[in-house]
Amino acid sequence: MTHAISHQPDDFPQALLAAYADGELDSQTRAKVEQWLNDHPESLAALADQQELGPGNIALWEQADPPEPSFMAWSVLRRCVDAGLQSTVAPSSSSPTTLTRHANEDKAWWAFGGLVIAGLAAAIGWIALRPTIEPTLPSSSRPAEIAARMESQTPPEVAPAPRAIKAVALAPTASEVLAIATDDDVVLERVPDTGEGWLPIGRHPVPEVLLLASFDEVQLHEADPSPAWPKGGPRIVHAPGDAPMIYAASNR
Amino acid sequence: MLAVPILQKPLASPPSDADLLERYATGDRSALDDLFRRYRMVAFRVAYRLLGREADALDAVQDGFVKVLTNLDRFRGSSSLKTWLLRIVSNSALDIGRQRKRDTRVPQSPRDDTPEWFGATDLPPADNELVRADLRAKIDAALARLPETQRQTFVLHVDGGMSYREVADTLGISIGTVMSRLFYARQKLKMLLADQVQP
């Protein structure tokens, strides 16, 4: 957006070089700056500096972009936001407002040391008896630390067994479409750093595993290559319970 | 042939921030997911540039989202959700930076054999992650030496993608002040970066 200068900076017109380099000036002010540059060619070097370090130097800023946090880091951060919202909505006398500060309250940890030890013992026992695929989120930790811990864990070799398989009658004719999710339930996102491909991202639209067919009833053949698929295309694999699963060939 | 109908459907235009906030207010958690995905990276980029560390930046982003979402009643729509979020994230990042005194951020000294990378036409190959990290470290180090007001203005404009008007509204300053801060910030950055690459 360009705009006229309603407030003239003290160092006029030099500071205008920044706005000129960024294309933020209206045509009238822009013409004035250009006239001034004609009269003061020694200022062209300063203009070049402004352009080099402006957002218009896309090549520079793309290279200097910070590395995007991992999928796990984003997931943990998202859950920390949820935890922060809950703690804000229902604060207690022992829970601070922000999660970060909470992690630094050593005195509180000492005061509740006995309780923590008991809790740890209970947690260890619980974990030994009932391992989970997705670790629970300690609400008082920092997102990056949680993500690092979760990423260092060895992933399961096989898909988790379905919690419950609920048989659903298929549509009577193959031409009918079985509505699994609506547009609002699934978002298609391009996965960064995986070449081409879109994957549905979001919460599972149905709370339970939906049994559509047994493995023997599904066969993948003559699938038209689609640029939207990851390299290798979709595959069918066995899943616990003999439910066919179609999954993307590349890692998310 | 196996059909994947959802991949063949044209993508609908994304809902507006106002729509998502309205849905979130009615308890729709997926609206929050959408908002989070929409703004998490720009918020992270701003926070990272102000702090130089991913862990600290994620803290600032978390703080920003929580504060925005718990104070929606104060959001009157006079500014965009993005500018409001980035203001909170950048302020939070500066708070974290002050609190932690940036002791682990400021920087390894750059290598002496750095090529002439500065300037759009002299950039090294983009696929070299070491070069990218080196460049990032140099810019972070130079930014760390700017006055806080200049640094925040610069980062909101360059990394936050904000116009001068948006930066002015976000920081409560005039457009002339935005210009002035950006001009001097770049001058100083140029000097600092030039010092690093010249023997």
Structural notes for this entry:
The complex is a heterodimer of chains A (252) and B (199). In chain A, the strands form 3 sheets. Chain A has a two-stranded parallel ribbon. Chain A is built from 9 helices and 6 strands. With 252 residues, chain A is mainly alpha-helical. Helix content of chain A is 36%, strand content 8%. Chain B is an all-alpha fold. Chain B has 9 helices and no strands. In chain B, helix 3 (29-51) packs across helix 5 and helix 5 (81-100) packs across helix 8 (164-171). Chain B is globular. Chains A and B meet through helix 1, helix 3, helix 4, helix 5 and helix 9 of A and helix 1, helix 3, helix 4, helix 6 and helix 9 of B.
Keywords:
heterodimer; A: mainly alpha; 6 strands; B: 199 residues; mainly alpha; 9 helices
Compact summary:
Chain A is mainly alpha-helical and 252 residues long. Helices cover 36% and strands 8% of the residues of chain A.
